[in-house]
Amino acid sequence: MDAILIKGGRALNGEVRISGAKNAALPMLTATLLVAGKFRFSNVPDLKDIESILQLLATIGAEVDRKGEEVTVDTRGVDNFEAPYELVRRMRASVLVLGPLLARLKRARVSLPGGCAIGARPINMHLDGFERLGAKITLEHGYVEAAAETLTGEEIFFDVPTVTGTENLMMAAVFAKGTTVLRNAAREPEVTALADMLNRMGAQISGAGTPNITVSGVDTLVPVSAEIIPDRIEAGTYMVAAALTQGNIRITGAEPDHLKPVISKLREAGAGVELAPDAITVTGSRPVSSVDIKTLPFPGFPTDMQAQFMVLMSIANGLSVITETIFENRFIHVLELQRMGADIQISGNHAMVKGAERLSGAPVMASDLRASASLVLAGLVAEGTTRISRVYHLDRGYESIEQKFGQLGANIKRISETASS
Ligand code: EPZ
User: What is the pLDDT of residue 337?
Assistant: First the structure.
C-alpha cells in the first residue's frame, strides 16, 4: 500500500486543470448497457473507480478500451446480467448497472453493496422504485435480483433526494410503457449530465436539475459520444487549498455554476474568488474568518466538500459549526485532524471547530475518499511532515493528486508503505 509524505507550510501558486467528474462518468458509463452499440467518451478521469466500472462492464460482456482520457465501450456483446460481489464490494456505485440492465434485459442480479465508512448507505429507494415500475425484487445470499416482464411508468416519490437512486430510476424508466415521474429527485449536475446523454440517445426526459423529472418511455435508443463534465469536488478541493495556504491558484476547466455554495462560503471566509468562463482563481488571505456550513443536497453545500472545508475552519479565527445532514458517519476525518492539533468537538451531526494557531504534521490514516483529501489539505498547511497512509482511498477519486499539488509548489511525494517502515 502507498503513503503520501507532505512537508507543509508552503503557499501554493500556479494553475491546475480539473479532470472529468467521477460521479458523472460512472452513471454515463453504465448507461451504455441500455443499447447495443459503440459509445465514445472523452475527458474521462484516470481513477480507480473508473477502472472498476470498466471491469464490471467487461464482466457483463461489453468491450471496453481506454486511450488516455478517451474511453470506448462496445455493448454489442452484452449477454450477462450479473454484477459479482468481488467487483461490487470494491465500489458501491456498481449498483448503477441495476437500472440499465433491468431496462434492457428485464433482469439484473447485483451483489448488495456493503455499507461504507461514511454510513450504511442503503439502496431501498432504488429497489422500491424498481418495484413501482413493475419489477419483482428478491434479496438472497447478499445479492439483489430484479426481474420484470414489462416495466410500466409510475410516479415515484423519494423520501430524500438520492443521487444514484435518481440516476438508476431514470435509466430503468427509459423503455417503460407510459410516463414515469420522479418526485423529490436529486438535482446534482451529474444527474443533469446523465439526462442530457440519455436524451441524445433518444430518451425523452424533462425536468433534470429540478425536483421533478419526467421520463416518457421510448422503444429504442442509439449509442452516442459524450464528454464528461468537470469534477466540481476536485475543483473545490483545490480552491480550499489556495485559501488554506495563502496561495493563488487558477483552476481551469471547472464550471463555476456547479460551485456556487463553495464559492460563497470561501468568500465569506475571506478568500478572494474571481470567476472567468472556464476558470476560477482563488487567493488565500489571513486571517481566515470562521463560517458555519450545513451540507444539503444540490444546490446546497455539498457533503463531499465538508471534510475539506473543515480543514480551513480548523485554522480560522473563531468558532465554526459544521452540520452534516446527508450521511450519519461523515466525521471520521475529525479524529485524524485532532491528532494534527485541530480543536474540534462533535455533538451529534454537528462539529464545533475552534480555529487553532496552526496544525502540526503527524502520521495519519485515510478512511474514505473525501476524508483522505482533507488530510492532504491539512498536511499542506501543517508545520512539519505529515504521512498519510492507505492512500488507495484517494486514488479512487483524485487523478494524479501529488503531481497536481507538486506543480503548485507543494513538497509532496508518494512512497510505498513497506519502504517507509
Ligand atoms: C452519491 O452517492 C455520490 N456518489 C456520493 O459521492 C455523494 O456523497 C452522495 O451522492 C451525496 O451527494 C456517486 O454519485 C457515485 P445518495 P449516493 O443516494 O447516490 C440515503 C464521493 O465521495 N439513501 O444521494 O450513494 C443515503 O444513506 C461519493 O464521490 C437511502 O436511505 O448518495 C444518504 O443518507 C461519496 N436509501 C442520502 O440518502 C437509498 O436508497 C443521500 O444518499 C439511497 C440513499
Answer: 97
- Helices 163-172, 124-132: axis angle to 10 degrees equals 20
Q: Give the DSSP letter string of 121-164.
A: ---HHHHHHHHHTT-EEEEETTEEEEE-S--B--EEE-SS--HH
Domain ranges, residue 91: 22-227
The residue annotated as part of the active site, out of 116, 181, 319, 356, is 116
Select from 137, 163, 330 the residue to mutate for testing ligand 1; criterion: most ligand atoms less than 8 Å from CB.
163
| 155-157 vs 179-183, strand pairing mode | parallel
In the residue annotation, 330 being an active-site residue is answered as no
Instruction: Check whether the bond before 287 is cis (ω within 30° of 0).
Output: yes
* Of the residues 172, 195, 227, the one at which a domain ends: 227
Question: Beta strands 225-227 and 350-354: pairing type?
Answer: unpaired
In the three-class reduction of DSSP (H, G, I as helix; E, B as strand; rest coil), residue 416 is classed as strand
Residue 421, pLDDT score: 45
Could you give the CA distance from residue 185 to residue 169 in angstroms, rounded to a whole number? Answer: 10
Set of cell numbers at residue 35: 443499447
Last residue within a domain, chosen from 192, 209, 227:
227
Residues 296 and 178 both lie in one domain = no
Distance 118 CA to ligand 1 centre (A): 10
How many structural domains is the chain composed of? Answer: 2
Q: Cα of 329 to ligand 1 centre, how many Å?
A: 13
For residue 301, pLDDT beyond 90: yes
Residues 337 and 364: their CA atoms lie apart, in Å, by 8
388 alpha carbon, distance to own chain's centre: 21
Residue 421 CA to ligand 1 center (angstroms) comes to 36
Statement: the pTM of the whole predicted model exceeds 0.70: yes
Buried/exposed code over 316-351 (b: 16+ C-beta within 10 A; e: otherwise): beeebebebbbbebbbbbbebbebbbbebeeeebeb
Give the separation between CA 190 and CA 26, rounded to whole angstroms: 9
Is 232 within 8 Å of 189 (Cβ atoms)? yes
Give the Cα separation of 282 and 235 in Å (integer). Answer: 11
Q: Domain holding 294: CATH number?
A: 3.65.10.10
Q: What is the pLDDT of residue 420?
A: 46
